[in-house]
Specification:
The complex is a heterodimer of chains A (315) and B (406). Chain A has 315 residues and is mostly helical. Chain A has helices at 2-14, 17-57, 64-69, 78-85, 87-119, 125-132, 134-137, 140-151, 157-164, 176-204, 208-216, 221-249, 253-258, 270-280, 284-314. The longest helix of chain A is centred in the N-terminal third of the chain and has 41 residues, at 17-57. In chain B, strand 4 (133-134) and strand 5 (137-138) form a beta hairpin. The two termini of chain B are 36 Å apart. Classes of the chains: A mainly alpha (315), B alpha/beta (406). Chains A and B meet through helix 3 of A and helix 4, helix 5 and helix 17 of B.
Chain lengths: 315, 406
């Protein structure tokens, strides 16, 4: 979409070029297409097919039977109506929003703080940065199992630790009012390396000369950050935030591993609901409808990302 | 589409060749009408079960003169694997299914009715046959069964001078008396999966509750028992996040004096000889009641592969897995209960510690006996209600109404 609105405007500036260019390029076109073709086929198979399949599935009564009989009657938008009117849907939407916003906010702020911290050179800085990647490298199933043990109410190490200070045991994963916070906390822990790594590379790319010049003008510490680091970092920041949102919206493993969407649906998100409908209840039409809703939400952010990327390339 | 053609053709005499072609992928060789191998799919992927099952399968394979191609998948992946195989027409010749799933799969038309192929179900416990029956036909045979009962730590109960409870009041009192420090009186699973629903069935059914009417006072009363145990602190609040494996870990670690659990844990419990335990049937609410527990275990079925020759051998194979000798062998080695009721005596002579379970199985009900393929919906309402009540979001009286509204 953005390319359509964009291209003519730019072409207009170059004025008479387009018609001539089109004619001239016709000879090369076959060669170009041949270069693009393998990628196009791969995209169609790996992305196009599942997306189309998911779309058609969401319009069908796709059940256990379908796998055996191959019959999946068309039901129009009934699946969408069903999942949206389900009382859990509102809670799942709210939880998805809270989970995403909470995760992104803290992942980003902590990630940025760490990136700036590691910009300063000090002994073992590289080693520490390497260690910081650990949460990212661990399989999610291991992370969630480990955190589940840590957050366990009676014998978990966190409550034991807090107990030293006289804090009563907290039901991290068993209290409906706390479970979502605990799950977000674990997801923040998992997401920090991603944020730190990208932001650190952004920080590294800022020329030292800027800071030297800035310090002559009296821009140090907070002012240096405000007027040098932040503006220089902005393209990286938008990439980190948008990718972070898209990744976080579809987080599934961590929630399933920690709470399974419980207690009493307190940590149910669109992603866990979609999983539940498809692979526990075997109502694949409902599951597909939910995941399509999720895809549309993600796409809003993806489009913003693509537009940003285009601007950056244009600049 | 292709499947229809194959199945329709299966009835015709000329179809065997066609069917054999389509069945080529599942490891059968029906070209000559001679079946030399059977493919088997099950979820006994961990030892000791894995090798004990293998021994039984091998015995029957030898008896029928076929070789086996056995595939095992983790329990949670079985149905997904079956669905994938169904859509690619590569279902195995012999398929093991968890008994509450048999009717759902039978409903799809994927299974061969065993009773129409001369398999007799005489002598089997009725609950077992109910679980494998759909629309009047038997689709699976279950050699051994398991169920739930109340395990207790004999040392802890003796130290505290507490007798194993036989009624709910005694259960509440015992659990409270056994709760101190790091140790809870009882552990069980109230997790938000079918596992949590399954663990709730002993109190629910024993009290006369029924899955066809979940908003009845009998069901609410049973839920109140769970609520009381948690609210009084006799059970951890974490039970809403515990699987049965977690409940067992708590018991084995000495952090619970009693637990609701099944005999499949016994082999691993025997590896920790420091913990002395015994088992009683799940207590009753009113002394006039009989403990009723859910029937667990797996049935062996024969999928419709279109290859009639292989299907016939597979039916014989399933029958072989259910002979009295094979039932006893698996029951004794795997700490499960033979489903032929007349084997109880022989079995208990070898495994006296299984007495409570054997009694419990005699009165056990199958989960799908009443609702059939609709059971998963009821099971979902049950665990949702448990979660609502145990987290204090609804009273035990209102929880089921609230959960069924969803």
């Amino acid at each position: 979409m953005s390319s359509l609105t964009h291209a003519p405007a730019r072409a207009g500036q170059v004025s008479p070029a387009p018609p001539r260019r089109r004619r001239k390029l016709r000879g090369d076109e076959i060669g170009k297409i041949l270069f693009v073709l393998p990628a196009g086929i791969a995209m169609a198979l790996l992305f196009g097919y599942p997306v189309v399949k998911n779309l058609t599935m969401s319009l069908q009564d796709y059940s256990l039977q379908t796998f055996f009989t191959g019959e999946a009657p068309w039901v129009g938008l009934a699946n969408y109506v069903d999942v949206v009117t389900d009382p859990i849907f509102g809670q799942a939407m709210l939880n998805t929003g809270l989970f995403t916003a909470g995760s992104i906010l803290f992942q980003f702020v902590i990630g940025l703080a760490l990136a700036l911290f590691f910009k300063q050179h000090f002994p073992l800085s590289a080693t520490l940065r390497g260690l910081l990647l650990l949460p990212w490298l661990l399989p999610l199933i291991v992370s969630s199992a480990t955190w589940r043990a840590i957050l366990e109410q009676d014998s978990g190490i966190l409550n034991r630790f807090l107990g030293v200070f006289g804090v009563e045991p907290i039901g991290w994963l068993v209290s409906p009012s706390i479970a979502l916070i605990a799950v977000i906390g674990v997801n923040i822990w998992i997401g920090i390396p991603f944020n730190t790594t990208l932001l650190y590379s952004g920080v590294q790319a800022i020329p030292d000369e800027l800071y030297e010049a800035g310090s002559l003008d009296g821009a140090t510490h907070w002012k240096a950050f405000r007027y040098i680091t932040w503006p220089s970092l902005r393209p990286v920041v938008s990439v980190v935030l948008i990718l972070g949102v898209v990744y976080t919206l579809k987080v599934l493993d961590i929630i399933l591993g920690l709470t399974g969407g419980g207690p009493a649906n307190a940590t149910q998100t669109l992603a866990t609901q979609s999983y539940q409908r498809s692979f526990v209840d075997f109502e694949f039409g409902h599951g597909a409808a939910l995941s399509n809703i999720l895809i549309v939400i993600s796409m809003v952010f993806a489009v913003v990302y693509l537009r940003r990327g285009r601007h950056a390339a244009d600049e | 589409m292709k499947r229809h053609m194959v199945m329709a053709a299966g009835g015709m005499s000329a179809a065997l060749v066609l069917a054999a072609c389509s069945g080529g992928g599942d490891g059968t060789d029906a070209d000559t009408g001679e079946v030399s191998s059977l493919s088997v799919l099950d979820y006994y992927n961990n030892d000791p079960d894995n090798s004990l099952i293998q021994a039984g399968l091998d015995r029957c394979a030898e008896e029928l003169g076929v070789t086996l191609e056995r595939e095992t998948v983790p329990g949670g992946d079985l149905i997904q694997t079956v669905l994938q195989q169904a859509s690619s027409q590569t279902l195995p010749d012999v398929l093991m299914l968890d008994n509450p799933d048999v009717q759902q799969i039978a409903e799809t038309g994927a299974l061969v009715p065993l009773d129409e192929n001369g398999v007799s179900t005489e002598g089997f416990a009725q609950g077992v046959i109910d679980a494998s029956t759909f629309d009047g036909h038997v689709y699976g045979l279950q050699p051994v069964a398991n169920t739930l009962a109340l395990f207790y730590n004999t040392d802890i109960l003796a130290d505290e001078g507490v007798e194993p409870p036989t009624t709910w009041d005694e259960l509440r009192e015992a659990a409270a008396a056994l709760t101190e420090g790091d140790q809870y009186g009882i552990s069980f699973s109230a997790i938000n999966t079918y596992e949590g629903s399954w663990q709730f069935l002993p109190p629910m059914w024993t009290n006369g509750g029924d899955e066809t009417e979940l908003t009845s006072p009998e069901v609410a009363e049973a839920l109140q028992l769970w609520v009381d145990l948690v609210e009084s602190g006799s059970a951890s609040e974490s039970v809403i996040n515990w699987s049965q494996g977690d409940a067992k870990d708590q018991f084995m670690a000495g952090r619970a004096a009693m637990m609701v659990n099944g005999p499949w844990n016994i082999p691993s419990m025997n590896e920790m000889p420091d913990v002395n335990w015994d088992v009683v049937q799940f207590p009753v609410n009113d002394p006039s009641q009989t403990p009723v527990a859910p029937l667990g275990g797996e049935a062996w079925t024969v999928p419709v592969t279109g290859d009639e020759a292989s299907q016939a051998v597979a039916v014989d194979f399933v029958e072989c897995l259910n002979t009295p000798e094979q039932q006893l062998d698996w029951a004794v080695s795997r700490y499960t209960i033979p489903t032929r009721t007349d084997l109880a005596e022989d079995f208990l002579a070898e495994r006296p510690e299984m007495a409570a379970f054997a009694e419990q199985v005699a009165n056990a009900r199958s989960r799908t006996g009443q609702l059939g393929p609709e059971w998963p919906d009821a099971a979902t309402v049950i665990y949702e209600a448990i979660q609502l009540a145990l987290t204090g979001q609804a009273s035990a009286d209102e929880a089921f109404a609230q959960a069924s509204a969803r």
